[in-house]
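Sequence decides. Consider this:

===
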Amino acid sequence: MTGSVLAMGWMTSTIAIAILLAACSAAPADTTTVSVPPQIVDFEVQQVQVGDRVLVLAIADSPGLRSQGLQGVTDLEDLDGMLFFWRHDGDSFWMKDTLIPLDIVWFNEDGTYKDRASMVPCTETPCPTYAPANLHFRFAIEATPGTLTWITKSTVITYSD
């Protein structure tokens, strides 16, 4: 009887470990089923490695998409935010027609941290602009205030178009 109790305990432990390993190595969420705000349904959605996390981001990688950004959006729905990408040094940001406050984090060409800011909807003309010193950056992530606080000076973004 003792042998079968030990065998049963060993089997239970093995199954529990297998379930935990499967959960930890599960494939990332399918971005085709991600709910996005209606204002940005035409944006590509990708999973992007940022430090030790994978974020689900709408991609703004052309002048038109970067110009539109999150204008008119009131809820990011299933998105973690929006990634802005340039093949040259980036441009400053403004919150014209943007209805929600946003935090922004900028990254250098090599993916290393550059700077961050908190932005508020524009209620005056002209709208204030936001940019890191000297505008030398290639990536920026906009997200709901407070959700990017885990990003530090040692965080690196990994993205290729």
